[in-house]
Amino acid sequence: MDEVIGGRFKVTDTLCGGRAYKAFDTDGRRQVFLKRWEPGDASFEDETAILKALDSPHAPELICTFEDETGRYLAEEWLEGETVEALVAAGGPLEPAEAAELLTGVCEALSFLHWNRQGAIVFIDLKPSNIIIRHSRGNAGNRVGGEIFLVDYEAARRAEPVLPDSRDPGSETRDVGERTFRLGSRYFTAPEVLFGKLCTQSDIYALGVLMGYLLTGREGFPGSYAFKGFPGEFIATCTLPDPEARYKGVSGVAETLREFIRSSAEAGVRDDAGGRRRRRGRSRGAAADDKRGAEGTESVDASVEGSGSGAPAAQGSKAEIPELLKHFRRSCVMVEGNPCFVSELSGVAAFSLKLRTAVFSLSERGRRSLEYYFDGNGKEEPLVADKNVYPFVFDHKSLYLHDVSEWVKRGLVKVTENGGAELYRGAFKLCLELPLRREEDVRRFVDWCFANFDLTVINVDRGDDRRLVNAALENCNYVVATPGSNVEDMESFRNYYLALAENGRLVYSKVRFVAWDYSEQEVPRERLFPVVGRDKYLGEVRRSEQRTKRRNRVDGANTLLPECGGQYEEILERLIS
Fold first, then answer.
1. 218 partner at 20 to 30 Å CA-CA among 87, 268, 537, 569?
2. What percent of the chain clears pLDDT 90, i.e. is strictly above it?
């Protein structure tokens, strides 16, 4: 075949009825994939724009675009590999653990779309022929081992966040355009896509159908796959009619799949050792994700039995749950410029209320400020650049598909234990290996926090990059201000956040106020209510001689102040319920 297109691409094979070709790029000296559109077809601009916006190792490289008398062309990297469709056709259906492993790789590929720095992208056309596995020599005995690539972005579309109270870029997105767009493929297209209501859960719907396809080798509607145990529950949860009732994001889906893979491996070990078959139960990740409601809520039972990360239960029986947790709402809170308040609030949440609590900062400077209150005169980690400091830096994006236990193992997060409860804090390596330098980094980090903790508190230092602070403002579901306990300070903080809201940088409904270092001689709380509104006033934290000593490093560190515990419980009750 001697046909040359665009003056540089020598066609070696014709694919898809003349719409696509395998060709040799005489300029770049490599094989390429050529795709052709008729002149004036707007889908050409759609796919080109998506590929240009993507920064993903799981998408083909865009080489160039051009136009001639025969049409408009897109040239991209040729991927040597096997489509999932060909894999199943050649070797038959997969085992459940194999299917889970393959879908975990698809989740990672989707995460680069859903958390794209220029805004969430919905793939829409997630079907077996659009997923390529590039096998490596080290995975010769593993059918599903290798790199996962998603191809054909013609149907992909951007999604815009729902305002005013969107917190999860992976779960609260909609396409706001009215232009007609190409739908995905039969069976794999979520019902809301047919009505132009795109969201990233539309791709999660397709993951459920893919599971059924991998286990049977046939395409079908979700209800046509009759599986018991985990596969059936996974398919059912992914394909629920209401997008908000599905898994909240691909990180939650990936962790649920990993839990199933781990439990399957354990069951296999038991079978080999004693011939006994363990009944496969539902993974904690699946149970916890199923219990999340449309507003990011999770029932108290899910908090007790295990969070989305699969951690051990922090509390015992249901009778032991404090009254204020009966209507618990999973939360991510931003506090600006008060690490002392952050350390005490998180200590009460973790050690008194047994909430799975985490504390982070946006910068190394902020982390050091927090350490002052958590560790007192404790020895700071040495700033030594040895071979163990950056062991995972080139794979940092995939860290978001792992739960907090993996982060602890890698030294990115450290844990303080007290009476069976745990408080997680960002470690020195976290700022090195997972730097928050872009707004999208913050959005993705907050999304991971929602998936792993009941309560996340992000402390913002006054010297932090304001772009990152604004990203935290947008993605946390509460912003807690801690002015002094007088009318003037309260008014000053209120006006500051109102100004941010007027400039479109903050949703004011998220803001809450706490009177800091309150004393009996100062303004009564009844006079502070009208300044910010009773619904926004969470309470006050009284002055403490012990806190003053701790600030001055007189007594070392004591995160939990007994005389302040009840005050913080009152604040938390109003914050998370």
1. 268
2. 31
Site of tokens 């690490």: 339
3-state secondary structure labels for all residues of 95-143? CHHHHHHHHHHHHHHHHHHHCCCCCCEECCCCCHHHEEEECCHHHCCCC
DSSP string, 356-392: -EEEEESSHHHHHHHHHHHHTTPPPPP----TTSSTT
Helix, strand, coil shares of the chain, percent, nearest 5, are 45, 20, 40
Q: What is the pLDDT of residues 325-381, one digit of tens each?
A: 444 556 788 998 899 899 889 988 998 888 889 999 988 888 888 888 887 544 444
Is 308 a residue whose pLDDT tops 60? no
The per-residue DSSP string of 426-467 comes to: E-HHHHHHS---SHHHHHHHHHHHHHH-SEEEEEE-TTS-HH
Burial of residue 222 (number of CB atoms within 10 Å: 0-12, 13-18, 19+): middle
pLDDT higher than 90, residue 184: no
Which CA distances in Å does 243 have to 202, 347, 548? 7, 35, 49
pLDDT confidence of residue 241: 93
Whether 168 and 248 have beta carbons less than 8 Å apart is answered as yes
- Domains of the chain, first to last: 4-77 (3.30.200.20), 82-290 (1.10.510.10), 330-476+544-576 (3.40.50)
Sequence length of the chain is 577
Alpha-carbon distance of 397 to 111, in angstroms, equals 9
Bigger pLDDT: 532 or 18? 532
Q: Is the CB of residue 289 less than 8 Å from the CB of residue 230?
A: no
What span, in angstroms and rounded, lies between the C-alpha atoms of 130 and 407? 32
